[in-house]
TrEMBL record, chain A:
PROSITE patterns listed in its UniProt record: ABC_TRANSPORTER_2
Cited PANTHER family: CONSERVED COMPONENT OF ABC TRANSPORTER FOR NATURAL AMINO ACIDS-RELATED, HIGH-AFFINITY BRANCHED-CHAIN AMINO ACID TRANSPORT ATP-BINDING PROTEIN
Top-level taxon in the UniProt lineage: Bacteria
Coiled-coil ranges (or none): none
A molecular function GO annotation: ATP binding
Annotated ABC transporter domain residues: 16-255
Lineage: Bacteria, Pseudomonadati, Pseudomonadota, Alphaproteobacteria, Hyphomicrobiales
Protein name: Urea ABC transporter ATP-binding protein UrtD
InterPro entries listed in its UniProt record: ABC_AA/LPS_Transport, ABC_transporter-like_ATP-bd, ABC_transptr_urea_ATP-bd_UrtD, BCA_ABC_TP_C, P-loop_NTPase
From TrEMBL, chain B:
Top-level division of the source organism's lineage: Bacteria
TM region positions: 15-33, 45-67, 123-146, 153-172, 202-221, 242-269, 289-313, 325-349
Name the UniProt record assigns to this protein: Urea ABC transporter permease subunit UrtC
InterPro entries according to UniProt: ABC_transp_permease, ABC_transptr_urea_perm_UrtC, LivM-like
Sequence segments annotated as region (Disordered): 366-386
Sorted UniProt keywords: Cell membrane, Membrane, Transmembrane, Transmembrane helix
Membrane topology term: Multi-pass membrane protein
Organism: Ancylobacter mangrovi
Cellular compartments per GO CC: plasma membrane
Keyword Membrane listed: yes
Biased amino acid composition, Low complexity: 377-386
Compartment annotation: Cell membrane
Length: 255, 386
């Protein structure tokens, strides 16, 4: 809607260029002719009422859902034609809405599996837990406040710690584009603060797309906000502009 | 494996467990059982290869196959074809219309050895075929299914259908396969008579040796990162996929590995028992093998071996007195295991025995490393490959 008109040749400047993206579930268009662009090192927050299609947008970008039409370009690679693991290997990391971690494994093992080495069958069989791996796991564990829980089975972590662990599992892959689906949902106030702190450290040198409802949190981190409503962009721009947009107040912020 | 500098893949308690099993199978049972009973144990152990494969495939990776008899059978038939050809020398079969071909072919008016039997004149080829034919079959099935993301119950049903189809095929093509009777009257392996008591004892030890080697292989896979990826896939397949892994490749791999292990069991069955028939291929034996694994503990490599031995021992004793009740007993046992101790004998051991043994092993058993049995919460839904 308010997105600038951009031609294909200019896409190179963007880390992510979504154009005309539509997905239809049995005729219901959960995402409808959506276009938006994410810059290098930009933190983009997507907000919008429940069912607006926010999670579906992330599903489309990471290949979990196939687009009906439209294009998703990540640094000139067309993601709509790639398999999920290829998209990950290209540098796109995605955190799910509910913490998605391996409960039967330890925190260390959770992070180790996410370490971007030995991803083929043979590679996994011959993978060695050598010093660089251990150091990297330790480094990430410290960032996500779980250095003391490395040998603990992940199922015994608190909800907030599970969210951090999943964020850590993405960080260890060092993705160029990181997508987080409601990372602070269900967290206590103190956990929220720590998560905001964590996000501030991890967003360096990468682009981030965050879906979030907590407006204080959004204000705190967003460079630019995209408001989705019924699969379309209702408003886009800096937080102040979006917050002042009467359409946004009517469908979302007014509640 | 250890030369590469990785930490040794067996934990102290694993080594103790394997040593105890080895002593039991190599020393205690041969010394205490008569030949006849020892041959029974040897036969049971051939199913343990299948159970071992199921621990990796079903227990760790969450892929329930109800058709492992297919691979047991393919391995067994490959071996049987070699032995049958050796038993069907022109001299042995001179009374036939066409001497030099297996007797059942002659009875079915076949006058020339089918092309696919030809290579089974060679022992080397046969041994490779035992390992590779089932793996190729598993690869084709696994590739077709897992690339299409068929999993869980659907996969289980398809494997069951395969078991049924292969049985029908073998029974129907009796000129090429020996039909319902299977391939019988096997005599010698490269001239060595496998029917004598001494040969059977030697084959028992070969079987135990192969089983122990397979157990080591299973431990190696389990303790590698691949083993942990299997567990991770069982739990959160999408998370593994979105961590950059092509999940289907790992499923295909573990399914093929389980197939090859089953096939070794099948080949050893043929050698020790002296025949192979479709009754080891179909749905019922395939499900029985899943039950052995469940009873022993589908998450425990060693548990599955004990489960196989125990259920078969019970089957033999039970069916001697009440043959018609056995299937009910087996079904009841399965339900009891699933409902009351989902991690089988190994789970009971872990819960009640290991904590008391812990101090003996210098606390080694306390390490929560590698893959401890799944908690009860996930224990009830083994096939839930989401
Ligand atoms: N796989 C699917 N099949 C059918 N409908 C879906 C599917 N995924 C999402 N939807 C629908 O699309 C709409 C948007 O969902 P979602 O993206 O999860 O919203 P949000 O994350 O903004 O709350 C919802 O109405 C949801 O029911
Ligand atoms: Mg959502």
């Amino acid at each position: 809607m308010n997105t600038p008109v951009i031609t294909d040749t200019m896409n190179k400047d963007f880390v992510l260029a979504v154009e005309g993206l539509t997905v239809s579930f049995d005729g219901f268009k959960a995402v409808n002719d959506l276009s938006f662009y994410v810059d290098e090192n930009e933190i983009r927050v997507i907000i919008g009422p429940n069912g607006a299609g926010k999670t579906t947008v992330l599903d489309l970008i990471c290949g979990r859902t196939k687009a009906t039409t439209g294009s998703i370009k990540f640094k000139d690679q067309e993601l709509t034609r790639m398999k999920e693991h290829e998209i990950v290997r290209a540098g796109v990391g995605r955190k799910f809405q509910n913490p998605s971690i391996y409960e039967d494994l330890t925190v260390f093992e959770n992070l180790e599996i996410s370490y971007p080495k030995g991803r083929s069958v043979v590679g996994a069989l011959t993978f060695r837990r050598d010093a660089p791996v251990k150091e990297r796991v330790q480094e990430i564990a410290e960032m996500i406040f779980l250095a003391d829980q490395l040998d603990q089975r992940a199922e015994y972590l608190s909800h907030g710690q599970k969210q951090w662990l999943e964020i850590g599992m993405l960080l260890i892959q060092d993705p160029e584009l990181l997508m987080l689906d409601e990372p602070v949902a269900g967290m206590s106030v103190s956990e929220r603060k720590k998560t905001a702190e964590l996000l501030h450290t991890i967003i360096k040198n990468r682009s981030v797309i965050v879906i979030e409802h907590d407006m204080k949190f959004v204000e705190d981190i967003a460079h630019k906000v995209t408001v989705l409503h019924q699969g379309k962009i209702l408003s886009e721009g800096p937080m102040a502009k979006v917050q002042a947009d009467p359409k946004v107040i009517e469908v979302y912020l007014g509640h | 494996m250890t030369k590469t500098g990785r930490t040794f893949f067996l934990r102290p308690q694993d080594m103790i467990g394997i040593a105890i099993l080895a002593i039991l199978l190599l020393v205690v049972l041969p010394l205490t059982l008569d030949n006849f009973r020892l041959q029974f144990v040897g036969k049971y152990l051939t199913y343990a290869f299948v159970a071992l494969g199921l621990v990796l495939c079903w227990g760790y990776a969450g892929i329930l196959s109800l058709g492992q008899g297919v691979f047991f059978g393919l391995g067994g038939y490959c071996m049987a074809m070699f032995l049958k050809l050796e038993a069907s020398s022109v001299e042995n079969t001179k009374i036939q219309t066409t001497p030099g071909i297996p007797d059942f072919m002659d009875w079915n008016q076949i006058t020339q050895l089918p092309w696919f039997w030809e290579p089974f004149h060679h022992l080397g080829f046969t041994i490779i075929a035992v390992l590779v034919v089932p793996a190729i079959f598993a690869f084709v099935v696994g590739f077709a299914m897992f690339k299409r993301r068929v999993g869980g119950v659907y996969f289980a049903i398809i494997t069951q259908a395969l078991a049924a189809i292969l049985t029908i095929l073998i029974v129907g093509q009796q000129g090429y396969t020996g039909g319902i009777n299977g391939i019988t009257d096997l005599r010698t392996l490269n001239g060595w008579d496998i029917r004598t008591d001494s040969a059977k004892t030697i084959l028992y030890f070969v079987c135990v040796g192969l089983l122990l080697a397979s157990i080591l292989l299973a431990y190696f896979v389990k303790s590698s990162k691949l083993g942990r990826i299997l567990v991770a896939m069982r739990d959160k397949e999408d998370r593994v996929r979105f961590s950059g892994y092509d999940v289907s490749n790992f499923k295909v791999f573990v399914f093929c590995l389980a197939a090859s292990l089953s096939a070794i069991g099948g080949a050893m069955f043929t050698l020790q028992v002296g025949f192979m028939s479709p009754s080891f291929v179909g749905i019922v034996p395939s499900i029985e093998m899943v039950i052995y694994t469940a009873v022993g503990g589908r998450l425990s490599i060693l548990g599955a071996i004990y489960g196989t031995l125990l259920v078969n021992w019970a089957k033999t004793s039970f069916s001697e007195s009440f043959p018609e009740l056995w299937l009910f007993g087996l079904g009841g046992l399965f339900i009891a295991v699933v409902l009351t101790f989902p991690n089988g004998i190994a789970g009971l051991y872990q819960t009640y025995v290991a904590p008391r043994l812990g101090p003996l092993f210098g606390g080694a058993a306390k390490r929560s490393d590698a893959t401890p049995p799944a908690p009860p919460s996930s224990g009830h839904a083994p096939a839930a490959a989401e």
